[in-house]
Amino acid sequence: MDLSFPPRPVLVTVEAFVDPAKEAEFNRWYDDEHMPQSIACPGFVAGARYRSTDDKERKYLSLYIVESEAAMETPELAAIRGFGELTPFVRYERRIFRPAPGLLINGLRGEVHFPPRPAIGVVKASVEFAYDEEFNRWYADRHMPQALGCPGFRAGARYASSDTFAKTYLALYVIDGNEAFESRELAAIRGFEHLTPHVTYERRLFGPLISFVKGSTEVTRYPDRQPAEKHIADR
Predict the structure, then answer these.
(1) Mean pLDDT within 11-37
(2) Cystine design at 201: which of 34, 71, 125, 127 (Cβ 3.0–4.6 Å)?
């Protein structure tokens, strides 16, 4: 499986807000139990965890590369799905994304592999149906190329949700750090121009915590966490 950027063929995201009193327990459980068990399930290729680094409510983000949507329906995954005893302390959303035709942009500056690092910027957007086509043309032809030309931006890719919820677009940027989102160049193009009244969006910044690749050793952690190796055997 190709693990070069952008993540494909299917990207699954799990966003979670955790009760601060249970955060340490949640992280231990996710790192040592849940994500390794998930990657061992049929159809899962790799996974990575991130923690928000902006000044908003702390959010955790998990990215999974899977071979197809069918990976989300296996009995093996069903047996471990959810947060177990931590469920009452977690608010979360799980979504499935594909790089739809005409939406994927891969503006690379140097070699980038999964997991995207040293930091990522994530923009999720929902668009009024009547402006959907115009929004996609503008984002693909104008906005993302401009963003990728800004200092600190390494690569970017766009996805469209393929699950049964309302369509959501996901832009995933690989950046050098939070300062990339604070540059004058980015400030000059920030926003959705004339489409702003028709777009609902969220923009967040994340730093990597840990990653797993089935059949190999792969890890990414914050500098303040001790490095460790994680290995998941092939099935």
Answers:
(1) 95
(2) 125
* CATH number of the domain encompassing residue 198: 3.30.70.100
Q: Which residue spans within the chain are E strands per DSSP?
A: 10-18, 44-52, 60-66, 90-98, 119-127, 153-161, 169-175, 199-213
Residue at 150 is within a domain: yes
Residue 222 lies in a domain: no
Q: Percentage of residues in the chain with pLDDT exceeding 70?
A: 85
Q: Is residue 2 part of a domain?
A: no
Q: Which of 89, 91, 73 is nearest to 81 (CA)?
A: 73
- Tell me: the pLDDT tens digits for 76-102? 999 999 999 999 999 999 999 998 655
Inside any domain, residue 234 = no
Q: Does pTM surpass 0.90?
A: no
Q: Is 94 exposed, middle or buried (0-12, 13-18, 19+ CB in 10 A)?
A: middle
Q: Give the residue numbers spanning the domain of 139.
A: 10-213
Phi, psi of 214 (to 5 degrees): -60, 125
